[in-house]
Amino acid sequence: MMHVPRVRSSVTTLLIREVAAFYRFFWKTPAKDRAIVIYAEHEGYYVSFEWLVEKLTGDHDQTLCYVTSDPDDPILQTTKARIKAFYLNKLLPFFMCCVNCRVFVMTLPDLGQFHLKRSVNSVHYVYVFHSLVSTHMAYRYGAFDNYDSILCAGPHQVEEFRLQERRNGHRRKRLVKAGYYRLERIYRAYQRYASQKPCPESRGTVLIAPSWGAANILESCGERLVETVLAAGYEVIVRPHPETVRRAPGLLAFFASRFGNQPKFTLEWSVATDDSLLRADVLICDCSGVALEYAFGTERPVLFLEVPLKINNPRFKELGIEPLELSLRSEIGVIVSPEQLDSVPEAISRLMKDSSVYKKRLAQLREQHVYNFGRSSEIGAQYIMDLCRN
After folding, report:
1. 195 and 162 fall within a common domain
2. Does one domain contain both 109 and 233?
3. Are residues 362 and 385 in the same domain?
4. pLDDT attached to residue 282
5. How would you label 257-284 residue by residue, b for 16+ Cβ within 10 Å and e otherwise?
6. Which end of the chain is more exposed for a tag (fewer CB within 10 A), N or C?
7. How many helices (H) and strands (E) does the chain have?
8. Domain co-membership, 204 together with 330
9. Which residues of the chain have pLDDT under 50?
10. Is 224 inside any structural domain?
């Protein structure tokens, strides 16, 4: 798949845009219209807020401010009267320190631990998860300490937070049993796709979607894995993590050069859509949260490659709880060693054969591990509106 890079604006032009946005927010936006502020690092995170934006601006008729650090984020071109969009990047730390709103919503962990601090004003900070994974291995120690409320996706997150609070003597946060909208979005899209899906013309489609970091699948064994699966006759889609796209463009350029002429190979440079999740018959992953989204959203199995874990909190074992993304692997699929890549095609074939068994099991696991499936939008938006009114 050919990638056409975006034409970037000059540093001066972008800074002028930021200054204009800074001025417009603090001096041109009425207080009632900036009661709720949502912040996203780049356009790929809009799917984490889409549900809140639609419910707040629609059902609750609430105007909100959407701040993005991506100069090309489509939200900046919105014509919706209830959404006021702002581009802030270099000036974001200053904005964060003095923002004056009622509720500030983010899906960025580590608030207060690095350059982004809490405001000097009285602001209630709400964290929205962009993954179903546990809170104590994939995130840094203390990643959520400076949030006031957290919209939890499932009971595992509530259990982990409460245990950490008791052990460390931290203040009790407001933990809302909200659910996980991105999963609902994938599920609805897949139901539509499956009802219209034509009879397969090829052997099947395999999606490779790893986490990011030095030991991820693409860096540790990606070339041989793609070769092996393509040679077995499967269509292969490689969907890198957004951080891999941002931090390792050379790695992706290698895959584009190495396999770009193969008709059954596709390299995705953006995760803005879920199309590849819908098309894939089997997902190959490590322990990324996308494995849970794929399995619970499409009710199809996952093949896990046992590459070294990405551990952002070396103290995660102190909690005594196995992270959900590890404990469920053998239930939602199979685990294969990278040293046995030749066995991957056969493992894919078995998973596809057993798809009906996995479908029933995955629906049951989703019910067990995800809150309020199908109702997360209403619960999250109502909670934020209650914060504003109180």
Report:
1. no
2. no
3. no
4. 97
5. eebeeeebbbbbbebeebebbbbbbbbb
6. C
7. 15, 13
8. yes
9. 1-5
10. yes
Taking the C-alpha atoms of residue 283 and residue 294, their distance in angstroms, rounded to an integer, is: 8
Do 354 and 382 lie in one domain? The reply is no
The three-state secondary structure class of 270 is: coil
Strand order in the sheet with 103-106: 83-87, 64-68, 36-40, 103-106, 124-128, 149-152, 174-177
For position 248, what pLDDT does the model report? Answer: 79
Pick from 268, 199, 265: nearest CA to 231:
265
User: What are the pLDDT digits (tens) for 221-268?
Assistant: 999 999 999 999 999 999 988 777 777 788 889 999 999 999 999 999
Residue 161's CATH number: 3.40.50.11720
What does the pLDDT read at residue 273? 80
Assign residue 239 a region: left if phi > 0, alpha if psi is -120 to 50, beta otherwise? beta
How far from 200 is each of 58, 136, 204, 281, 343, CA to CA, in Å? 39, 41, 7, 10, 23
The reply to whether 259 and 309 lie within a common domain is: yes
Return the structure tokens found at 159. Answer: 């259990």
Query: Which pLDDT score, from 0 to 100, does residue 303 have?
Result: 98
Residue 390 has a pLDDT of 82
135 vs 139: CA distance, rounded Å: 6
The answer to whether residues 196 and 325 belong to one domain is: yes
pLDDT of amino acid 202: 62
Report yes or no: 257 and 227 within 8 Å, Cβ to Cβ: no
Domain assignment of residue 37, given as a range = 13-180+373-389
Contacts of 249 (CB under 8 A, 6+ apart): none
Neighbours of 306 (CB within 10 A): 14
Q: Taking each helix axis as running N to C, give the angle between helix 181-196 and helix 376-389, from 0 to 180 degrees, rounded to the nearest 10.
A: 150
User: Cβ(84)–Cβ(29) under 8 Å?
Assistant: yes
Domain-located, residue 8: no
pLDDT value at residue 203: 77
Q: How many domains, the chain?
A: 2
